[in-house]
Hints:
By secondary structure, this protein is mainly beta. A hairpin with a 3-residue loop joins strand 9 and strand 10. The N terminus is likely disordered.
Amino acid sequence: MKTLLASLSLILAARAADVPVPPKNIIVYREAKRFAGWPANHGMWIWGNEIVVGFERGYFQFNDQRHSIDWDRPAEHVLARSLDGGASWSLEHPDSLKPPPGSKVANVLTESGGKVPVDCPGGIDFTNPNFALTARMEDVNIGPSRFYYTYDRGKTWSGPYKIPNFGQLGIAARTDYLIDGPRQMTMFLTAAKSDGKQGHVICVRTTDGAKTWTIISFIGPEPGSDDKALMPSSVRLSAKSIVTAIRHPSWIEVYRSDDDGATWKYWSKPVPDTGAHNGNPPSLVKLRDGRLVITYGYRSAPYGIRARLSADEGRTWSAEIVLRNDGGAWDLGYTRSVQRPDGKVLTVYYFNDKEDTERYIGATIWKP
């Protein structure tokens, strides 16, 4: 009898462990009459249960055709920090992250007070345990672009430093990089196409701590006039293998390199549809069990945040996982995701409850 009861207990425990845990939604930052958006542009970083995410904070003004931000009032670059794995957050506004004078982001004026970008002297230690880097651009088509870095988990930042054009018409940088060594980093950027419009993803690298950079490759063919490839999110599978997920107007593609970025091949289309209104960028994360997870916003009804999983290095993908579908309008998404020490994934994004109310930064904690 004891053996039977023990067996039943094990079976029940196993079944209980298989019951899906409902995602938990959290407010990171929300303020009436404000627009908070685009975490994917800024980046998110994790140190144990300490997590920092960057985003844009402006003023809300309803617009059914464009983002509902007041284009005539300045926006600012801010951070939110959590010390408990994303359960609670505090807002920070480092002076060292203020954009250069007269800077714009997607044609939205930014606050004044920042420094003019200069050439980086190099020598950055990318392996510093408290290191993080954020890459920013002005015009979404031709830049120019710059980066900042921190050695104290985002409390203070050095920069801004110029990102080269690499012989292109312009570079519109968002934050996507792989640390390869103390002085070596691989970065993924969006270059302007030959018509001067966004975008065509390139892979670049520095081996001297960001003093000099070399373009390694273009990823995929240059998109046609009715297409664009931009906002990559990349993970390293091994010393030589990398996969990167790339945003297109209404879908997401994955490319793979097995020679450390020198050449690329089309690998899969994990998300054939990200909805209307110009689609949504991916956030790609390699989980500790080796699987890949991709998260993204969905900009058609039902508006929300979704995910897919891959157990074969991004070649094939699971059915969609709906993290939430209660958005009030298309103006949402731009996810960044990290895996917490407990194995759960924290996905941060901008969101709305109704089309004519403020845009805010939300988060979902979920178990893949």
